[in-house]
Amino acid sequence: MYLNVDPKETFGFTLRGEYLGNKDAVLGLPSSVFETTLSLNFKVGGLTIIPELRLDSAKEEAFIKNDGTTRKSTATALMAAVYHF
């Protein structure tokens, strides 16, 4: 599911939700994972800068921390740049 809003020609944001049901553990993942991503879009000419924040949540502990322990949720931030020509 996507929700996209561009209040200005040079700025917009997108909220995206995803659900993965995997009750038979075919993918080696927990039975369900819900992911939410918020993306901002800053447009300058043909260049779009896209910072994103993603939150993942699972029913069981599935995400491995640096110390080797696991937890049920994790957060990721990234930055993308796209040039349209």
SSE arrangement:
Blueprint: E1 2-8, E2 11-21, E3 32-44, E4 47-58, E5 63-64, E6 70-71, E7 73-83
Antiparallel strand pairs: 1-2, 2-3, 3-4, 4-7, 5-6
Order of helices and strands: EEEEEEE
Radius of gyration: 16 Å
Largest β-sheet summary: 5 strands, antiparallel
How many extended strands?
7
Overall pLDDT level: 88
Which residues form runs of ≥5 with pLDDT under 50?
Answer: none
Shape, principal axes of CA atoms: elongated
Distance between the termini: 28 Å
Class derived from helix and strand content: mainly beta
Portion of residues in beta strands equals: over 45%
Residue share in helix: under 10%
| Total domains | 1
Instruction: Write out the strand line-up for the largest beta sheet, numbering strands in chain order.
Output: 1-2-3-4-7
Our count of helices gives 0
How does this structure look, described?
The protein has 85 residues and is mostly beta strands. The protein has one domain (2-83). The chain has strands spanning 2-8, 11-21, 32-44, 47-58, 63-64, 70-71, 73-83. The chain is elongated, with a radius of gyration of 16 Å.
Key features of this structure:
85 residues, mainly beta, five-stranded antiparallel sheet, two-stranded antiparallel ribbon, 7 strands
What's the short version?
This protein is mainly beta. It contains no helices and 7 strands.
